[in-house]
Amino acid sequence: MQVFVSFASEQKESAELIAVALRERGYKVFFSKDTLPAAQSYDVRIEKAVKSSDLFVFLVSPESVTKGKYTLTELSFARDQWSNPSGHILPVMITPTEIGKIPVYLRAVSIFEPEGNVAADTAAQVDKILKQTRRRDVALVAAGGAATGVLSYLVMMYWPSALRIPFVIMIGKYNDTGVTAVPGFLFGALVAFANWKSGIRDKLHLCVIVAFTLAAWVLAVNVTQFTFDQLSDYTKPAPTASNQDDSAPADKAGSAAPDAPAANTAGNGAPDASAVALPPTTKSLPFAPGLVGMIGGLIGGVGTLLGIVIVNVSMRRIEALLPAATVAVLLGAILQVAFIPGVFGNVGYCLLFVCWQSMVAAAIARALSSATAESA
After folding, report:
1. pTM above 0.70, yes or no
2. Is residue 259 pLDDT above 80, yes or no?
């Protein structure tokens, strides 16, 4: 995560110490023109640096709040970015300053006054604020996932032909079928938003994430449907009373063996229906829906993460990807709930969409915030 430190030249030494302390905690810090990339004008670069930061630290001193100082220009950029300073602006009292001279925008939040080492105390306060911000962002993304999950379920149930994409697996009965792309777009937009919050601002990169998430959704439904149908064709004999009694000893009174047609008449010479040999009943694999759901969750999760990895270098680590992929696989098993007879039915599908999208999105948002901080 990125922190912008605004200070007057008189406080440069304090600003440098704070920047070092923040970098030791894993944050990327902008605090002077030397840390800005060359290209556009100085003002434009400063404005972009402020807008790309997660927290704006303003070192309060009589010099920094003096009219005409560039620190006030930087503060105006921050005010344009965040109309509400709470959670985004941290004023730090470096030198005692008359409260009336401090801009109202800074006074709208508590002014932090270090009691010990200025750099260490300020870095600890920044860490506290940004951790709260990360938790809030993860909760926001999780809530968005619950909303997109409900919408996805409603589209699948009541508008399945919307933006229908043909199945990739073109075998037999799949030739004339397909799946709506709406859930893929909805979840892709949410994942792109989570990446935007983590600092990915390039529109093309965000579109790549949406495209991969959409493709992952379509492929997951394809493979899930195909695999489920294949497993449904697998059957095995169900236990019956007749095959359980095959090993029973003959009746002591000399009754016939179980397969003897001794009592197969109904009195008129016609066969007794109860004695006619019937083919054994069959049953399918009991946990097939949960297994298939996990396969679909794996494809959907890995496909989505692949799009993120392509555009976000900080996520190219197994420790960042594994938790989200694991959540995606395990939550796919919720599909089993939809197949519990007479209990859940379509409610199980709604539960699958809501739980999977909210928890996977939250896992991705958490991984993004951690990866960004560690790579800074």
Report:
1. no
2. no
